[in-house]
Design brief:
By secondary structure, this protein is an alpha+beta fold. Helix content is 35%, strand content 16%. The chain has a 5-stranded mixed beta sheet, sandwiched between helices. Strands 23-22-26-27-25 form a 5-stranded antiparallel beta sheet, with helices on one face. Strands 16-20-21 form a 3-stranded antiparallel beta sheet. Helix 2 runs parallel beside helix 23 and helix 17 runs antiparallel to helix 18. The protein is globular, with a radius of gyration of 31 Å.
């Protein structure tokens, strides 16, 4: 091609500028000051960001530290040490306001304004039709200088009446791409572009095993014609390509949620989060890898119309990351589209062009309907945003006839959304909503955004919402337990020996009778079949049909059939479905199997006359969700809920009109900058490194939903050992005399090439197993984030039992005696209490699951003490129990319906 017709390189100038400024921007100003002063900055700032120090307390700490340094005669004068927390943050490179855009908005409709528009307005009233809000307030300040300042004259200044804090995902990505840990944790997608779909019997481990991975295309534009028909077309021929084809293409997940941030008055704040699906899921939900785009100002949850204004800057930036710009040559004969943004990236000599797009949106059902512009779940004609069922159908067989569902079409929903946008009256918009179930959402403007197939049903709230509905509406309101039954339930729950890394159920469950948290409902779903069997069993240990009598004082007696045997069968179906669907890795065959159990559960409730709610119907769409987005661990909301918890823990000053929301996003970005500070510690002292690493690295594995969620992915199949194993153990002095010959036999089978012999044998080319110098004893180990104790663990008795997978293919609950170091779908098992087989040596890799022990005394035969052992793993499916084989056959005989 002729040199004059060569298209301009839009990246050349930008890459040169980025490379020129890279070194200057990488070193914080504080690293040119005295190390003692810098360490004082770090303690004060970190105490404020990650601890509980207020601004005043942090500044007092700085002053006190300077006095100590001054007494030592080493307080520098140039540069003068920072006295304010703001200055200390700026010198450490932790100033966050450079990354936050404060958008002035109307106090009522959330319409955004610029400061220039505010300064030129005739009055504070919002210019939107029929809006009663205001845009600015008057603040009187002292004149900045001159005679006016000397005479104490005041100057009136217009300040925004309310603000929306916003941080651009582009600015966040610029920082994140400079981090070594971020770049090295990104998935290498080079082999995914032309990969064939997984067979139905192959396990899906993450989002990248599902259909949505790589479905977003960059270089596209969204076209809407006069009839509101919508299509995505290439900006120019050949510009469209998959994220997988990009130099650095990032697949995003969007989450929106609301949470309370004040205790003395109701104030709800919204968080808009973005995660990167390219990251390994062990680090995907760490706070430093989650972008908090905006905190939606309260005090109430916004309407969809208000939320559209909130989303506008995000839509702008996502278009830049995905759509692009057209460049024309001087002769206008050659054009080029350049989407994405050029960014510096760790280990990249040439800054790559970064592209991004939403391949997944997941929020709870209320937020999801606003984000996608769908009708509320209480809408009479459109309660489901996935299919065309009506609200009355939720309590009819048609609501659970999966094979005959009529699914919604993305492009029809988009067409209805743009019709709603173009409507000139509220009446017309309501007509569109009632006819189609769709309203306009600003996110519809993003090319590639799909309101139906791009949004996942929130498994966490949906499934465990059904568990809560059974507990409250069937078990409690159905009067299926009398006073004695509730006492038995509470005693049984309190007798359970739980693993130390797993949360507990309330100790007063029989009295309080509420389960409010999803992790509690998850634990209850795991054990409910055993606990209710204990409560309902008769003198022969079998469950009868007759439920306890309804109390005479009950003003609202249940109307459904109170057949305990049928209800207990449905409990088993629900527990099995959760056991299957909540696995970390799952195949589509297993998904369909779990879906059928869930379908049978809902149909069974319907046959009993139990009133069902939208959650029950929407769970019939799980097969689509798993096929498109992978295992539930890739898209459920446990991790995002923890983000809200982080926000709720931030100290706030109680100021309204967006000020508290600004504090929240400052704190979030401050923690990001703190993590990024570790990358600039080349000239730091050792105390500074220890301080940063101590705060950023959590020692040990603590109990908690998110930490267990992440630890399971981080650990993989690695065995993590404590630091306590320093001395060798004399195996022959252990209480169990036959340990040494068992270990010898195990070592010989594991390492036959070593020719292992006992320590009394001397043979050439052999390896002696010296009983007092070869083996260390560990009190506990961690595998996949789960703690496994032993009989020598003095810390806790809770982790001394576990399920073990044996080479024969069976899984057996065992009592763990020692950990040595050498130089059923339901997951329920029954064993006799405190009775064990002969001691056997196994590999730690065979440890399969933490367990909960429920002690039971049988009635038939009488006075037999057993443990009912619940396996609490989520890594796979155990061999099928006999009763489940029979249930499976019944489902096949009856058909899917």
């Amino acid at each position: 091609m002729d040199q004059d017709l060569q298209p301009p390189d839009p990246d050349a100038e930008e890459r040169a500028r980025l490379l020129a400024n890279a070194e200057a921007a990488s070193l914080a100003p504080a690293f040119r000051e005295h190390p003692a002063i810098r360490l004082a900055y770090l303690h004060a700032v970190l105490g404020n960001i990650s601890g509980s120090l207020t601004v005043l307390e942090a500044e007092e700490y700085l002053r006190d530290t300077y006095e100590i340094i001054d007494l030592c005669g080493t307080l520098p004068t140039l540069p003068k040490p920072a006295k304010s927390l703001v200055t200390a943050k700026r010198r450490l490179g932790l100033a966050v306001d450079d990354y936050i855009e404060r958008i002035p908005i109307c106090t009522v409709c959330f319409k955004p304004y610029t400061q220039d528009e505010i300064d030129s307005m005739d009055g504070p009233d919002c210019v939107s039709p029929r809006c009663q809000g205001i845009v600015y307030r008057i603040k009187h300040l002292l004149a900045p200088s001159g005679e006016a300042r000397a005479s104490q004259m005041q100057v009136a200044k217009r300040i925004p009446a309310k603000i929306q804090p916003y941080t651009s995902p582009i600015l966040a990505l610029r920082r994140m791409c400079l981090r070594r840990d971020f770049i090295e944790s990104l998935r290498d997608a080079s082999g995914d572009l032309n990969r064939l779909p997984l067979p139905d019997n192959s396990l899906m481990h993450d989002f990248h095993d599902a259909k949505a991975w790589g479905s977003f295309r960059v270089g596209m534009k969204r076209v809407v014609d006069e009839e509101c028909n919508v299509s995505d077309e290439e900006i120019l021929p050949g510009t469209g390509k998959s994220l997988l084809e990009c130099d650095l293409g990032l697949s995003f997940t969007l989450n929106v949620d609301w949470f309370g941030i004040t205790e003395n008055r109701p104030h709800s704040c919204g968080g808009v989060y973005i995660t990167c699906n390219n990251l390994h899921r062990s680090v995907r939900y760490l706070q430093q890898n989650i972008i908090l785009v905006t905190t939606v100002p309260g005090p109430k949850e916004p309407s969809l119309e208000q939320l559209n204004y909130v989303f506008a800057p995000l839509v702008r930036d996502m278009k830049i990351l995905g759509t692009g710009t057209i460049y024309l040559s001087a002769s206008l004969s050659v054009s080029q589209v350049s989407s994405g943004v050029v960014m510096l990236a760790y280990s990249r000599a040439i800054p790559p062009r970064v592209h991004a797009g939403f391949e997944l949106h997941v929020s709870d059902i209320q937020a999801s309907r606003k984000v996608t512009g769908s009708a509320a779940h209480s809408h009479k004609a459109h309660p489901c945003n996935i299919c065309l069922i009506e609200h009355d159908g939720i309590n009819l067989p048609a609501g659970y006839d999966i094979a005959n569902f009529v699914l919604r079409d993305d492009w029809k929903q988009l067409k209805a959304g743009f019709k709603s946008k173009n409507a000139t009256s509220a009446k017309t918009r309501k007509e569109v909503l009632d006819a189609t179930g769709s309203r306009h959402t600003e996110l519809n403007e993003i090319p590639g955004w799909l309101p139906v197939n791009g949004s996942a049903l929130d498994y966490m709230h949906n499934f465990f919402g059904m568990v809560e509905a059974f507990f409250s509406e069937v078990l409690i309101k159905g009067c299926l337990l009398d006073a004695g039954g509730w006492r038995t339930l509470q005693d049984c729950v309190n007798s359970i020996v739980w693993p130390s890394t797993i949360g507990r159920l309330p100790t007063n469950l029989g009295e309080n009778r509420t389960l409010q948290k999803c992790d509690q409902l998850r634990r209850w779903c795991n054990i409910q079949s055993t606990v209710l069997w204990i409560c309902w069993r008769g003198h022969t240990d079998k469950i009868g049909r007759r439920a306890p009598p309804i109390p005479s004082q009950n003003k609202n007696p249940p109307t459904f059939k109170r057949d305990l045997q049928r209800i207990y069968t449905l409990i088993l179906y629900l527990s099995v479905a959760e056991r299957i669907l909540a696995a970390k890795a799952i195949s589509m065959e297993e998904v369909r199997r779990g879906q059928r159990y869930l379908q049978q559960y809902c149909q069974g409730l319907l046959a009993l006359g139990v009133n069902l709610v939208p959650n029950h119907h929407m769970s019939m769409h799980y097969t689509q969700m798993f096929e498109r987005f992978g295992p539930a661990y890739a898209w459920w909301l446990f991790a995002f809920e923890r983000c809200n918890g982080e926000q709720e823990d931030v100290n706030l000053n109680g100021h309204a009109f967006g000020e508290m929301e600004l504090t929240l996003i400052r704190n979030w970005i401050g923690k990001h900058r703190l993590f990024e500070l570790r990358g600039t510690l080349r000239t730091a002292t050792e105390p500074e490194r220890r301080l940063i690493n101590r705060l950023m690295t959590k020692q040990g594995i603590q109990r908690g939903t998110l930490r267990t969620h992440i630890a399971g992915f981080t650990g993989g199949t690695r065995i993590l050992q404590p630091k306590a194993a320093k001395r060798y153990t004399d195996i022959r002095k252990l209480p169990h005399a036959n340990i040494y010959p068992l270990l010898l036999e195990y070592a010989r089978s594991q390492w036959p090439q070593l020719n292992v012999v006992d320590d009394f044998t001397a043979l050439p080319n052999s390896t002696p197993l010296i009983g007092s110098q070869c083996i260390k004893t560990l009190p506990f180990i961690y595998k996949e984030g789960i703690r496994y104790g032993s009989s020598v663990d003095l810390r806790s008795r809770a982790d001394r039992f576990a399920c073990v997978d044996f080479e024969s293919g069976g899984r057996t609950p065992c009592h763990l005696l020692y950990h040595f170091v050498l130089a059923t779908d339901l997951g329920i098992y029954t064993v006799y209490q405190e009775k064990y087989t002969e001691i056997e040596i196994i590999s730690s890799q065979q440890l399969a699951a933490a367990v909960a022990l429920i002690p039971v005394t049988l009635n038939s035969p009488p006075d037999v003490n057993i443990w009912i052992v619940h396996s609490l793993d989520r890594t796979g499916i155990e061999p099928i129990d006999d009763w489940l084989d029979n249930a499976e056959q019944e489902l096949e005989d009856e058909g899917p319906n």
